[in-house]
Amino acid sequence: MGRIVVRGGTVVSPSGRWRADVLIDDERIVAVTAPDAAVLPAAGEVAEVDATGCYVIPGGVDVHTHMQLPMGDLTSSDTFASGTAAAAWGGVTTIVDFASQQVGERVLDGLEARHAEAEGQCVIDYAFHQTIGGVDDDSLAAIPTLIEREGISSIKLFMAYPGTYYSDDGQILRAMQVAGEAGMLTMMHAENGIAIDVLRAQAMAAGDTDAVHHGLTRPPELEAEATHRAVQLAKVAGNVPLYIVHLSASQALEEVARARHAGRNVLAETCPQYLYLSLEDHLARPGVEGAAYICSTPLRSRHDHHQKDLWAGLRRDDLAVVATDHCPFCLVDGKDRISEGFTAVPNGIGGVEHRMELIYQGVVTGEITLERWVETCCTTPARVFGMHPRKGEIVPGADADIVVFDPRRTTTLGRAGKHHMAMDHSPWEGITVDGAIDTVISRGEVIVDANGLHGRPGRGRFLRRDRPAVLR
Ligand code: URP
Ligand code: ZN
Ligand code: ZN
């Protein structure tokens, strides 16, 4: 690999932007320096990436993906190989996916099986959270081993999906106590799944089977109620840190903001789909077209002000992270199950390829600053999940994960434009955004440039993560 200079660009970090060149030696960044600094090799001496006119940002860190996730008799359509290739195309150099455990299964068995699926397949670096879907004495006893031996510093619990991943309040409290004691972060899918299941059954019985009823039976109040409960349980468990995943509703954001303003260790993530797509414009489309947008939490009504509030939450840091919850299913043999009603449709939307581009559009429209784009998509996710300073920032000593982003170009998303996810459709079809991913460097290797994708499956390494470094 040797040495590379990224020359002529503007380096962006959460604290500012500078005209600076970046010197890479093998897998690491060794200098971030003024363009005329003596430390830099002369032109022609080493390999160069020309970043003139571009932003030089840390490789994207997407802390919420589901590659080849089993869901009933289906599996999400991106494998670790295809999904991490799509991520690379989108300027992402690290993902955190999930190993899972359900009732009657052993946590470390699930983890071992997930390692076997990912090993030798990933184009970029990867890590795992551990889903605990069956909280009992055995699974609780395994939690400390995750951080002490396996490099896994976060667990995920579900207040939704009764019968599969759901935990009741007592189970949640116990798991939070154990994770908190071990210095781990508890992530929460916060929706009141018991009440939602009643509404789903009532809708189906009434013949309300279209995709829009997926959203209507998961109202914002039930996301807010669960968020409130999760916040209280985390307090009772010993003021343990809590991270709310895929927050979509203003009312849930209010709960997070209230907790944070009271000084609590509560963080939350949102996803591009909640910032751009809506119940009326997407989920309410007829048949399989609407089913393509079934995900949980659901897309919210454009008649309320969820999107405006989520952007404000990102500005205020009540939303600390943008991830994708990338969980793609094809229309054929997947979303087409809408013919049996919305409850038969696999939940999930694909987006790992487009998060950096879509959130940059928020910079263009004035919703957030360039620095906040980098902070929410790269630096904070790395910090919160114990990967900083190795990942998430362009500093000497960090892994040389760097994206050259060209603000002068535009990118058309979807199958008629840029589309590398293993999906027979795109939720983002036809959307054109400002800016384009120009070059992607992962641990000192150019894996995407104008000539295409060079990163091969298997070059990505499993990342052992530390305890959460920053909770603010
Ligand atoms: O619809 C979604 N979000 N599918 C993936 C599983 C989850 O709840 O995160
Ligand atoms: Zn979830
Ligand atoms: Zn998810």
Account of the protein in words:
It is built from 14 helices and 21 strands. It has 472 residues and is of the alpha/beta class. The chain has a domain of 326 residues: Alpha-Beta Barrel (TIM Barrel), CATH 3.20.20.140. The two termini are 37 Å apart. 56% of the residues are buried. The mean pLDDT is 97. The structure holds N-(aminocarbonyl)-beta-alanine and zinc ion (2 copies). One zinc ion (ZN) binds next to loops.
Please outline what is shown here:
The chain has 472 residues and is an alpha/beta fold.
Give me the CATH fold name of the domain at 59-384. TIM Barrel
Beta fraction = 15-25%
Strand tally, please? 21
CATH class descriptor of the domain at 59-384: Alpha Beta
* Strand order across the largest sheet: 8-11-12-13-14-15-16-17
Looking at CATH, the homologous superfamily of the domain at 59-384 is Metal-dependent hydrolases
* Average pLDDT taken over every residue: 97
Q: What structural category characterises the helix and strand content? A: alpha/beta
Overall morphology: globular
Sequence stretches where pLDDT stays below 50 over 5 or more residues: none
Q: Tell me which ligands are bound.
A: N-(aminocarbonyl)-beta-alanine, zinc ion
User: How would you name the oligomeric state of the polypeptide chains in this document?
Assistant: single chain
Bin the helical content: 25-40%
- Count of discrete alpha- or pi-helical segments spanning 4 or more residues: 14
Q: Which value, in Å, is the CA radius of gyration?
A: 21 Å
How far the N terminus sits from the C terminus, by CA atoms, comes to 37 Å
Q: How does the major sheet shape up?
A: 8 strands, parallel
CATH architecture of the domain at 59-384: Alpha-Beta Barrel
